[in-house]
Amino acid sequence: MSGVGSGYDLSVTTFSPEGRVFQTEYAGKATDNGVPCVGVCCKDGAILAVEKPEETKMMLPNSNRRIFTVSRHCGMAVPGKLPDGRQIVSRAQQEAENYKRFYGETIPTKVLTDRLANFCHVFSLYWHLRPLGSAALTASFDDDGPHVYLSETNGVSYRYYGIAVGKGRQGIKTELERMKLDQMTCKEALKAVCKCLIKQRDDSSNKKFEIELAWISEETGREFVRVPADLAKECEAAAKKEIEQEEDDDSDMEG
């Protein structure tokens, strides 16, 4: 049998001679090829941002949401396959509710993201299941401050200052590494995040797009909410203007 998996990708419980599980890698590629999602942790909160292409002109704005509320102090963005992402969000909501009911307090972000990673890992343990083609980018604000975590489909979870998942993630990560996120407020970071998403877009794509933004900060009372529409449009317009100005400056230098 020819191909990348050479027969070792027929079951999720089969290891290749090199120790690889191809179906899990395929699920990771589904996430990497999904819509760009960004999470950043600032000095006063955390931001989640998703760039969504307009699938059809008949689709209403905000009808294909990628950012969901898990609890009052926690939210989540899902790159990759949206139906699989909804399963992860639903599990996160159940975990948060059960923890609150049993212990009488909000679930710590580390505990939640580890449980989500374990949930995703279960789908790579049994032959009758398939790995989930989505990851979970979590933003929260608890007693330890703001957090951004990424729970991957292979069952690992890490905490980040800033992380990007999906198409163009390498370019966005490079831009994020140049920022001093620990010195920026969420309002300052909103424009920077929009700029990162717009710069990584493929110029050959004529599809319209919208940027979905949500945040949790001191300004929102440590409650996870969507960024007000007027503020989101203002940040997006400012980012586009700044990019155009940089392109004009580069053209002048080349001339």
UniProtKB/TrEMBL annotation:
Q: Give yes or no: UniProt keyword Nucleus.
A: yes
For this UniProt record, the keywords arranged alphabetically read as follows: Cytoplasm, Nucleus, Proteasome
**InterPro entries, alphabetized:** Ntn_hydrolases_N, Proteasome_alpha, Proteasome_alpha-type, Proteasome_asu_N, Proteasome_sua/b
Instruction: Cite a GO CC annotation.
Output: cytoplasm
Q: Which Gene3D superfamilies match?
A: Glutamine Phosphoribosylpyrophosphate, subunit 1, domain 1
The subcellular localization recorded is: Cytoplasm; Nucleus
Single biological process term from Gene Ontology: ubiquitin-dependent protein catabolic process
Proteasome alpha-type subunits domain residues are 8-30
Q: What is its main location?
A: cytoplasm
Judging by the UniProt lineage, the source's domain of life is: Eukaryota
Its biological purpose is as follows: The proteasome is a multicatalytic proteinase complex which is characterized by its ability to cleave peptides with Arg, Phe, Tyr, Leu, and Glu adjacent to the leaving group at neutral or slightly basic pH. The proteasome has an ATP-dependent proteolytic activity.
Q: Which family does this protein fall into?
A: Belongs to the peptidase T1A family.
Q: Could you identify this protein by its name?
A: Proteasome subunit alpha type-3
